[in-house]
Amino acid sequence: MKKNKSIPLVIAIAIIYCCVPHTAYSATSKAKIDSLQKLLHTAKQDTGRVSIMNRLARLYNSAYEFAKSDSLCNAALTLADTLHFKPGMAFAYNTLGISSLDRGAYAKALDYCFKALAIYEQINDKSGLSVLYNTFGIIYDSEGDYTKSLEYHNKALTIRQQINDKNGISISLNNIACVYGEKGDLSKVIEYFTKALNMFTELNDKYGMGTTHNNLGSVYGDMNEYQKAKDEYAQALKLENEVGDLGGAARVYNNLGDIAIKQKQYKEARDYELKALAIAKQISSLDVQREVEEPLSKAYELLGDGAKALEHYKAYIAVRDSLSNKENTRKSVQAEMSFEFEKKQAATKAEQDKKDLLQKEQARKQQMVIYFISGILLLVVGFAFFAYRSYRQKQRANKELDSRNQKLESAYHIIEEKNREITDSINYARRIQQAILPSVEAIRNVFPESFVLFKPKDIVSGDFYFFAAPVNAGKEKSVFLAAADCTGHGVPGAFMSMIGSEKLRDAVQQYSNTGQILNMLNKGIKTSLHQSADQESTRDGMDIALCAITSSTEAGGRAMKVQFSGAYRPMYIIRNGVSEMEEIKATKRAIGGFTEVENDFLVNELQLKQGDIFYIFSDGYADQFGGEDGKKLTTRKFKELLLSMKDKPMAEQEKMLAVFLESWKGVREQLDDVLVIGVKV
């Protein structure tokens, strides 16, 4: 299901934000903000002031004014803490969490929301708890953890049903439908959207009804049931027109255009998209215009009108860039205005100083005329000559400077365009790399108590993780799990990671012994990169930790037999009930580079029992510089950190590792890709 069409999470978040969608200030929003600002100026230092600041922060957050929102939240927290006003503190923490979520800072969002959760649980505020659970659901959905997301959305739904919060129930039903859409379970999506539609109908909420009909239309469109989709869009359009929701109507026309393109009705598609574009321009919504311009360009292209197709594609690029550069432009204009004002002040002062100097000079000249007429005349002629020559020299210098500035500006625009093209290409490469990596959900299906902490340094990564689906091994079933660190990071590292992932998959299909697999991987890398003993051949390769895991059931519970081989990357094991860490050493040979074609990699056979944990990882986490002294984290501290959290659930360990790394790094740059995999038996 396409988010830009059915907009499942956009609707849910907008409702949470007091029904103020993320867009430029509407007249109503501006009026509310102005009214609250006036109240804030006269409000006393009491709980009422806290409530005003919280409401105003929520409105600013909804309008993407995050700095103002965060500032008001922090001020509200300080005053609420002084007054021991816990509901006000919880509300502010929740808003900070939502703001962090909007900016993609999921770890921060979770931290703020957990603080709010502790307060709401303490004061037993069920309504506040339901909103927080809803927010948790959205955070986990954004991170791709759909199981956790559904768990929290269902918690929110249960509370709202208990307190008979019908508006909240409809929100939860919508969000649950959206998560199932992410999972690709369209039957569940239809079930929950239908429930939400019934609730909106009971509440006579035409805005919600129209939005849900639009969402259902998108679902049926994805199922290729075009007539059902058109019927839903027709009902949505009727309701959007009744409530005067022009933005909603524009999105319906856009969706109808999408259906028409799928049915190869290109003229109808063009007409629908033109209607959507007209509304977008009428309401000055760049967001909606961005959604419409690209499919309109496609419709013209399919109709054979290349000129119109190019015109609208350029418009799409312009709107997209305008939205991303809007804030930077505003700041630039403010700085330019400030500079011009200061420049005018300086010019006025210089002019006045010049006038004063001329008056003194005239008085002096008058005296000198009386005594030294001849000398004064010579001085005036000489001064005029040198002044004129200086003026001419300055004119020539200014012309040369203007010419250089024009050349520099032209070069800057060329570089800026090339940089945008390169960045777009790398972003697309990230999508390809993410498609090759196995899904974390597939790993958790086999190892429920596990995590994969994956934080690339740049847009694309030189680290990669590997997971092979179970294959029969006698009566047991085995899987392969690996953590690899390729030479470099960014684009060169990403190329190596893609080659390495493909060669590793070939090797595990031919061998079950981890040492033989690494030997074949070494051959594959050297062959692909044409590596030899020649000093001019590439030195690129990788370090890797590889496990072949078979599960069994013993009298004491679950058990695992692990076969491990490593190329410079070890394995850590923390056994259940033991307070020390066991390290399984790797073979001190790399994969690829200046290695021999035939290499022996040590094979370790290990038995793990229920409650034991093992970790495999790249060197990025331990090598990060930070802390108060700006030193390397080190392997020793990394081990101590893992031991300190051994009794925590694996999902919480992942969060703690991520939070600790951000805290340790501080304002410093991330030096390398980070990959840590943990599995508990």
Tags for this model:
681 residues, alpha+beta, five-stranded antiparallel β-sheet, 23 helices, disordered N terminus
What would a concise description of this structure say?
Helix content is 67%, strand content 12%.
Q: What does it look like?
A:
- Helix 8 (126-142) packs antiparallel against helix 9 (146-162) and helix 17 runs antiparallel to helix 18 (373-436).
- The model is unreliable at 1-26 and 326-345 (pLDDT under 50).
- This protein has 681 residues and is of the alpha+beta class.
- It is built from 23 helices and 13 strands.
- The protein starts with a helix and ends with a strand.
- The strands form three sheets. Strands 2, 3, 4, 5, 8 and 9 form a six-stranded antiparallel beta sheet that branches. A five-stranded antiparallel beta sheet has the order 1-13-10-6-7, with helices on both faces. Strands 11-12 form a two-stranded antiparallel sheet.
Percentage of helical residues?
Answer: 55-70%
Average pLDDT, rounded to a whole number, is 83
Poorly predicted runs of 5 or more residues: 1-26, 326-345
Structural class: alpha+beta
Number of strands: 13
> How many separate helices?
23
Q: Indicate the overall shape.
A: globular
**Over the alpha carbons, how many angstroms does the gyration radius reach?**
33 Å
Task: Quote the distance from N terminus to C terminus.
Answer: 36 Å
